[in-house]
Design brief:
By secondary structure, the chain is α+β, with helices and mostly antiparallel strands. It contains five helices and 14 strands.
Length: 195
Amino acid sequence: MKPGILMSMRYFKLSEDVYVPGRWELGTPIGAEGQELGSPVFLQGQPATVQGPMRIPLYQTGKPLDFSLADAGAIPVVHSRVGEFLARVASNDVQLFPVEVETQRELYFLVNVIRIVRCIDDQASKEVTYWTEKDGLPEKVGAYFSVSGIRIDPTKVGDAKVFRTWGWHIALIVSEEIKDALERMGATGTRFTEV
């Protein structure tokens, strides 16, 4: 890709639209043996192995959404039409697991984002802080402690369309192509913030 084209690429933080009236809220995914399968399994940016079917309980009943974040806002869960789209256009970036969502007959997928990109722009972001030796966790020294008003350097993204940011895995980033397609299909529950 030519540098000028790369600079014009736009990316967006994808989060759940918490302002949808009467929306449902999803709990932590549950494995076949009744164990919780949350952030430690699906927030690492790498493929996961899950034995047997998973289900997701409702933390709060309400209107089903095409895009939701389970496990306290960390793990994407999507309606089958969104999952099938992601499988087609971002197969190198995501791993999909069929899940049963409590009270729903329709198929949903848990989306494990397996692409991590080191692209946070510290200077352009509103505020970034790092773990230090004073924090008492030597294994985290030098990693992000918090990131506010995240901005990324698009020249570092490469061919990723759906990814998490290195050092700040909670951020779920999508390309403009993904954003536009989700908006065209009318996917409910999505909220995009340009980064």
